[in-house]
Amino acid sequence: MKNIFRSVLFVGLMLCLLCSAVYASVPYRPVPDNSSLSDVFNTIKVGGRYEPTRVRLITANDEAWYSRWKMIEEARDTIDCTYYIVDKDIFGQAFIGLLLKKARLGVKIRLMIDGRVYRMPYMSKMPDKIEELAAFPNVQIKLYNSVSKSLLSAFTDFKKVVASNHDKIIICDGMTTIIGGRNIGADYFAQNGENDIVYNDADVLMQGEHVAKQLKAAFDDEWNYLKNSVVKADAVNFKNQLAKVDLAYRVMSRYMQGRGLFDPAKLNLSKDLEEALVEMNKEISLFKGISSYAAFDLFRGERQKPVKILDKHSYCGPLNGITPSILKMIEACRSEVIMQNPYLVITTEVEAALKRAAQRGVKIVFHTNSAESTDSLFPQAFLMNDWERMLTDMPTARLFVAPSQNERLHAKIFVFDGLVTIVGSYNMDPLSEQVNSEVVAAIHDKPLAQMTRNRIFNLMKKNIIEYRLERDSEGRIVKKVGPEDHVKSETVKKMNRLRKLQWLRPLI
Question: What residues contact residue 448 under an 8 Å CB cut-off, 6+ apart?
């Protein structure tokens, strides 16, 4: 969900045009060898020793919400979580209400939120609610890169203006964890037809001390950097804001259990809370698909699998364990590379590795948004600029796009040779590779990889367009099917203007 981020930053970026090269990454150049994909996976260095980890891929939006809710409900000692967005809707308010409940029970909570989204005018009273949660002595809340502070750094460290903590992490009791592409909001947990926007996304739910320790290290690196970004309680409307998030929790919990809605007339509420309940009832009644929580099981008997957490710092340090690992896995592939990603702005190093893979006969499958399904036209403008070259330079590649705006692709999934799966927050663009903090899980398991592969291809069968170049016997292009063939003409005009802004490419 980048449209919010980009709209906030655009003015600052224009002022800092000459500084755009400051944060450019050093090219990654993995050395091609004859190593197998398993060899590459085994050589990935992570903290701690390997221990078996229970793993569940979460793709259904209702199960994604249930997973987060149940993890937090069952937490007894600690909860660490970081999100780019905690929205003001019933899901965001209920999430804060659930954390409030756990705080009252004495659970130690650390919450990290992106500062720019947090301060957006559209967030309404949400910051007030979060600030009141911070009043509890066992709760710590920090903002990552708030606007007021980051803009002051525009001319000294340009990277600090654009950097975000894009990790999406929950760690409960140092054991149960979830990461992926989803933020906290209705867009990520609604079913088709229940919300104006429905994201098709993916998370990975894990249980094991080994993985939890790795994720805590990723969380701590960013958390400890934020020495002066602590959110403090606001005394204004203190009790009222706490009462509202507590009410949101109760409304959500009751509805998820299949018990319907509270009757405002039967509750002894103040006028303000009664009005809030009416609005909450109206909102949550739209989401019919989240009323079977009572039957949900976190792991359903999933077996243990080899998992390694790959972390990338933002401005708190130089660590990037994601991009080099992806490059090495591409180099080791012998049959197939699948990249499902909402923003396809391939960097030079990744493109070079994919070209070499194509030369070896490796099949390459891209699945991304189109200009009709995306939440940002900038990546689409650059894809419009790139797609013909990509298909020409990678003759084994196929490029599929989601044309429908009703269900937007937001999953970040890589599948290598039907053996290794990567799931997390990492977008296939320079912003993720070079600037933001990101985290993914690399899973070495053939059944999971095959299941993930099948899911991607089944999704593409439903509603998909393939960009392609058709050639004659002499290799000349006789037909093109690209963005111009299905995107509205006005949108094409906008993208043609945007694609001229190549200097912005490192920020997309």
Answer: 55, 57, 305, 421
